[in-house]
């Protein structure tokens, strides 16, 4: 089952999500409409809302409340993108200029706030305190992850443990929350709710690990500049591994590049990462996380949606963009 065929499985639901997004983004403030429409319409895999939709169907959810939940997840993700690009000084995302590059940092931050607060209005409209609790906790942990990443930036002593704490909070937590909310909407028993949360967590970690591999091996399809993490001084797992296993000269080049936030030595650093097995190591851990995600699906009854969740875990680690 290809990624496109998985999307086709919930094609009507995805159309509904798109409609919800456009309806809920509407504002009488023109700049909000311009920026929000630009970032929402700029492509992307829409993997997070897709996970919500497929997970909800796999758990037996009926009706269309899961489309609202999927839109909420996409809104939170969009808000973090708007803020992240300002913090990182990014100029390119999904192959297009970032919103802050076009409208400036002030507009990006403020529109990000609007999209973020709108998501909470939508949560309230769902009328379920358990969902509110899951999502409020998730957004809080995402913010903590952003701050933890900021603390690690330009710090070559960042450990693997600190790195994993960041990617769990910053990336995997939203996948976890989306999968858990899908189970809640379906009225799933506590054991299945926990299993779906575990699926989302491991899927999200696998997804971020592969993102960090692609930052040193990606193509134009990635939609951003290869080496951006290095230029921003972010010690991701391939770098951490190379720092631990590289030759003294390699370690010194990597250390200085992280401290200075410079990609001028990208070619030499990429070679160091490859020679120490940093990419292979990170990819191996990603496959382990994907396997744990698939393992968490054991309680689900057999269905095309369960199979799609398995395939999404495979896609997370096999993708090249």
TrEMBL record:
One of its GO terms (biological process) is isoprenoid biosynthetic process. PANTHER family: ALL TRANS-POLYPRENYL-DIPHOSPHATE SYNTHASE PDSS1, GERANYLGERANYL PYROPHOSPHATE SYNTHASE. It comes from the Bacteria. Its EC number is 2.5.1.90. One of its GO terms (molecular function) is metal ion binding. Supplies octaprenyl diphosphate, the precursor for the side chain of the isoprenoid quinones ubiquinone and menaquinone. Belongs to the FPP/GGPP synthase family. This is Octaprenyl diphosphate synthase. It catalyses: 5 isopentenyl diphosphate + (2E,6E)-farnesyl diphosphate = all-trans-octaprenyl diphosphate + 5 diphosphate. InterPro entries: Isoprenoid_synthase_dom_sf (IPR008949), Polyprenyl_synt (IPR000092), Polyprenyl_synt_CS (IPR033749). Its cofactor is Mg(2+). NCBIfam families: PRK10888.1. Keywords: Magnesium, Metal-binding, Transferase. The keyword Metal-binding applies.
């Amino acid at each position: 089952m290809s990624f496109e065929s998985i999307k086709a499985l919930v094609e009507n639901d995805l159309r509904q999500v798109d409609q919800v997004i456009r309806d809920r983004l509407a504002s009488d403030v023109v700049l909000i409409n311009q920026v929000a429409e630009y970032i929402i319409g700029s492509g992307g895999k829409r993997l997070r809302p897709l996970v919500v939709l497929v997970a909800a169907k796999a758990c037996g959810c009926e009706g269309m409340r899961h489309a609202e939940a999927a839109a909420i997840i996409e809104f939170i993700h969009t808000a973090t993108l708007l803020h992240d690009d300002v913090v990182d000084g990014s100029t390119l995302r999904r192959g297009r200029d970032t919103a802050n590059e076009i409208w400036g940092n002030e507009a990006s931050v403020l529109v990000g706030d609007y999209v973020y607060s709108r998501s909470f209005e939508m949560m309230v409209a769902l009328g379920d305190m358990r969902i509110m609790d899951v999502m409020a906790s998730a957004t809080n942990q995402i913010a903590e992850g952003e701050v933890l990443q900021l603390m690690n930036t330009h710090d070559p002593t960042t450990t693997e443990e600190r790195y994993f704490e960041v990617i769990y909070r910053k990336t995997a937590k939203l996948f976890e929350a989306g999968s858990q909310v899908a189970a809640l909407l379906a009225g799933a028993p506590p054991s299945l709710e926990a299993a779906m949360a575990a699926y989302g967590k491991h899927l999200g970690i696998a997804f971020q690990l592969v993102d960090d591999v692609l930052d040193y091996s990606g193509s134009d399809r990635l939609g951003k500049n290869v080496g951006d993490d290095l230029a921003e001084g972010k010690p991701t797992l391939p770098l951490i591994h190379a720092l631990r296993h590289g030759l003294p000269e390699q370690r010194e080049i990597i250390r200085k590049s992280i401290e200075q936030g410079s990609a001028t030595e990208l070619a030499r650093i990429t070679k160091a990462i490859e020679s120490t097995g940093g990419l292979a190591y990170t990819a191996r851990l990603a496959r382990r996380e994907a396997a744990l995600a698939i393992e968490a699906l054991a309680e689900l009854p057999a269905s095309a949606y369960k199979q799609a969740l398995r395939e999404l875990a495979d896609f997370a680690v096999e993708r090249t963009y």
